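Hello again,

I reread your note about wanting to compare the complex against the isolated chains. To keep things tidy I'm splitting this into two emails, and this first one only covers the full assembly. Below are the input lines as submitted, including protein chains and any nucleic acid or small-molecule components. They are followed by the predicted structure of everything together. The single-chain runs will come separately.
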Amino acid sequence: MIVLEKRPQPSKLWAYGTPVLAVLLTMIFGGLLFAALGKNPVDAIRTIFFDPVFGEFAFYYRPQLLVKGAPLVLIAIGLSLGFRAGIWNIGAEGQYIIGALCGAGVALAVYPLEAFWLFPLMIMAGALGGWAWAMIPAFLKVRFGTNEILVSLMLVYVAEQLLASMALGLLRNPDGFGFPGSRNLQQYPSAHNAELIAGTGMHLGVVFALIAVIFAYVLLSRHMLGFQIKLTGAAPRAAKFAGVNPARLILVCLGTSGALAGMAGLFEVAGPAGQVSIDFNVGYGFTAIIVAFLGRLNPIGILLAGGLMALTYIGGEIAQGQLGLPAAAIDLFQGMLLFFLLALDVLTNYRIRLRKGEAA
Amino acid sequence: MDLSAINPVLLIASLMVAATPILLAAIGELVVEKAGVLNLGVEGMMIVGAICGFAIAVNTGSPLVGFVAAAIGGAVLSLLFVLLTQVALANQVASGLALTLFGLGLSALMGQSYVGVKPPAFAKLDIPGISDLPVVGPILFSHDLVLYFGLALVAAVWAVLKFTRAGLILRAVGESHDAAHALGYKVVRIRTMAILFGGACAGMGGAYISLVRVPQWTEGMTAGVGWIALALVVFASWKPWRVLLGAYLFGGITVLQLNLQAAGVAVPVEYLAMSPYVITILVLVILSQQKSSAPAALGRIFHASQ
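Full-complex prediction:
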């Protein structure tokens, strides 16, 4: 009989070991999945994890790593603060869309004005938009005790409809011959989130993602608020006695994650995506949840996890092109990773013992 | 705008069809939550059920076999949730999210060759004379079997929870797993069965969308119905009959907004399409005042330490 025995302290070794083990297991089971689809598993895994960085065309893919990793890290950092405190914002995708709409809206409103202050203003508008969208579940939770999981998720669907309405209506390119989608911001110099160093993929969003990592690290390890977040997650009742204001924590955590997701949306729409279109969002808001957990809700971990997840995105695209691997297989692959992570976490908090006789 | 084009009898009949997927998924989740487990993977189990049911129905030519397959598919996926939360003692919120993300990917992969395929039609109840009655006929006597099954399931769940020993044990596990464990009930086993039941119900709900309501297969076709079902359980304050009421309310909103779109109301289509989600939020706000009816052990991890 296998019995779980609670560890007095979570194991340090396993806390670092489980993400690595989960990635390895995902590779093995992903390989089996690809084999079942009739692809050579070794080829597929190599294409996904190795080729984007070291392959023949790596010079093209390496910049993409930053482009895809930045929004994931930016969103996941925000989410991790809430997750640590037991505040579940799973509507980052909606905040991402609204941030992009607000930021792009500012630029399109003043088009074709060229000014140095336009892009900073767009960033602020994006952050504000995401923040406001996240404030809806936050306010409802604080005021009425409404479940923030359901509200934030419902708002994703509302945001998607709003996006469709904007792309087809208010923000549509007046010179676009009636096609859906806004003006291309890449052709609007003041509003374009251009690469800071050409050919590196390094745009301002990457810089902001790195700053967010540093801020979150300092916040969690040095600041009172970070301590309160961790305390609330570990022992909500104790936190209350220690004078932590749960309402304030909810507003701060959801607000921060919304603002970061909104910024990520703005950087994407003004840079790599270029225009507001019905489907410019590609689910970063949901993948960021996996990134947050893979990084063990730790800022440095999230940075690494974001890189790895960006790798599966790019590698997945290459595998689609070269091996004919279906796009859905990559989604499944990413979902599998989260599964193994959650399952293996038991090793951090429990010891597995073999015992004879009837167990509970 | 021509509101006279909306026929109230057909509206009510199609409302019942629109409500059934939500009803099936919500009644399953109600049992899961009564056992003290919060499974946020309803959306994932629904979409997997949708494609399992669709694929089997297309291949066997029998929608009924499809529904059975959908129930099995949903239950098998929920088994992963059992492994995570009951065996590996993982956080239920995160595990539910994982189930949804995984289910969306899995269904898209399984459904690749079924895009654009037409499923076999589900036979509708047709009692000569009765089904042709005006008003009552189309509303009560001319639906498919699964719709009636959904109604019967609500009654069955209500009766089992209220009147039987099994229902009492299930509720005891959901209210206090430690007390139930001390009395000698197998908490993990009971919860596992509840989760499997929830998975089977969600799977059937999904298949109802792909086989009856739409009927065809498109990626991500459940479009948040699973999440609305979760909200519905809160709305119903964990009471089966209120689930029925809520499901019909949401079905009504969905059908009404579709009818208004068709009638050409001066509101843009997108704003009508977002109305079910907005109304879900409003309902959640109104009802979240009364927290007391939630099972006391909901979402808490059980580990028998001794």
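For quick reference: The mean pLDDT of chain B is 82.

B.
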